[in-house]
Amino acid sequence: MQQALPYKDCLPTTTSSNGGATTTAANSSITKLVAENPVVVFARSGCCMCHVVKLLLQGHGVNPTMFDINEQNEAATIEEFSKIIDNPEEKADRPPPPFPAVFVGGNFFGGLDEVMAAHISGELVPLLRKAGALWL
């Protein structure tokens, strides 16, 4: 059975300075995690809705990468999400991502509502295939 990755275990403790702007390696590790995995679910520890998304995806044959978020690192994670979301115009209008926050194919897909709506409409499986999360 797959285990969730605790947020603190993925974060290097070093920071680097680039021309006056300081960036932490955490930003790049989350960006790298999202880019390298077809489906990534950022979930609050013990959240039942996060568990529902995980079970739904596993029911389709997808083994999502789970990333646990707790109260101490939630604000930092939300800030990092805003840097990952592609469209700059959407960033201004979009509220912080809900948890679970689901990334499919390197792009922010949404939370429980979007995943369930795509499942009910039949759009979820083709999207997962396109992202490389499903082989059949």
Automatic annotation (TrEMBL):
GO annotation, cellular component aspect: cytoplasm
Single annotated GO MF: metal ion binding
Domain Cytochrome c residues, every copy: 33-136
Protein name: Cytochrome c domain-containing protein
Protein family (similarity comment): Belongs to the glutaredoxin family. CC-type subfamily.
InterPro entries: Cyt_c-like_dom, GlrX-like_pln_2, Glutaredoxin, Thioredoxin-like_sf
Main location group: cytoplasm
Localization (cell): Cytoplasm
Lineage, broadest ranks: Eukaryota, Viridiplantae, Streptophyta, Embryophyta, Tracheophyta
